[in-house]
Specification:
Helix content is 23%, strand content 23%. The chain has 208 residues and is an alpha+beta fold. It has one domain. The strands form 5 sheets. The chain has a 5-stranded mixed β-sheet, with helices on one face. The protein has a 3-stranded antiparallel β-sheet with strand order 1-6-14. β2 and β3 form a beta hairpin.
């Protein structure tokens, strides 16, 4: 899919409103990105934070949401070893949902991805991908975004919560009205879940 087709999809999803930019602005920001096969257009959190992108997700006519016990979602930024291009929009290469890593903990999956020469996705990148390819959010085939972590006061330490994107069952504080809606939540760093993979990419690009 061309970069222009991808930015049009993001605009149709509501990126202009979420970012406070016009559609024309967004098209201009994406105009110099190359059309590289197998790449996905990603939204930098400086353009629109994850909390603003989450409601743009839809499934079965229901908007996405952030769980009530993660009001600090936007404080989960890329870890120091994760490089993000210094521009509002950039490209992800060969995104994968990481199904083969289901039932691994984030702590176990991170070095495995590194050994494969892959980089985990941030929450904003995971949402960006689903806004263009919503079919990759399926029951029992959802994913974590372990490139996003919240630093703690002690240098080099992080909140044990780890962002993930899955489908609400409409239980508990989600509310029955949100059943089947896309959900941005969290799981513990050392916990395993049979239905959560680890989304990753081969790399990030701002130029050809």
């Amino acid at each position: 899919m061309t970069v222009r087709a991808q930015i049009d999809m993001l605009i149709d999803a509501g990126l202009a409103e979420a970012s406070g930019r016009t559609a024309a602005d967004l098209i201009t920001l994406a105009a110099d990105l190359p059309d590289l096969p197998g790449t996905v257009l990603a939204v930098h959190p400086d353009l629109a934070p994850a909390s603003a992108l989450a409601p743009l997700l839809t499934r079965r006519g229901k908007p996405g949401f952030v769980v009530v016990d993660m009001p600090d979602l936007d404080e989960f930024g890329p870890t120091p070893d994760i490089w993000l291009p210094d521009r509002p929009l950039y490209l992800l290469d060969e995104v994968d949902r990481g199904d083969d890593l289901r039932n691994w903990s984030p702590e176990e999956a991170l070095p495995a991805l590194a050994e494969r020469g892959r980089t985990p996705l941030t929450t904003s990148e995971g949402i960006s991908w689903l806004l263009q390819s919503p079919e990759f959010l399926e029951p029992n085939h959802c994913f974590m975004c372990i490139a996003s972590r919240k630093p703690k006061a002690k240098p080099g330490t992080y909140d044990a919560r780890t962002p993930a994107i899955w489908i609400s069952g409409g239980t508990g504080r989600d509310g029955a009205a949100r059943r089947d809606a896309p959900k941005v939540g969290w799981c513990w760093w050392r916990n395993r879940h049979t239905w959560l993979g680890f989304a990753s990419a081969k790399g990030r690009y701002a130029t050809a």
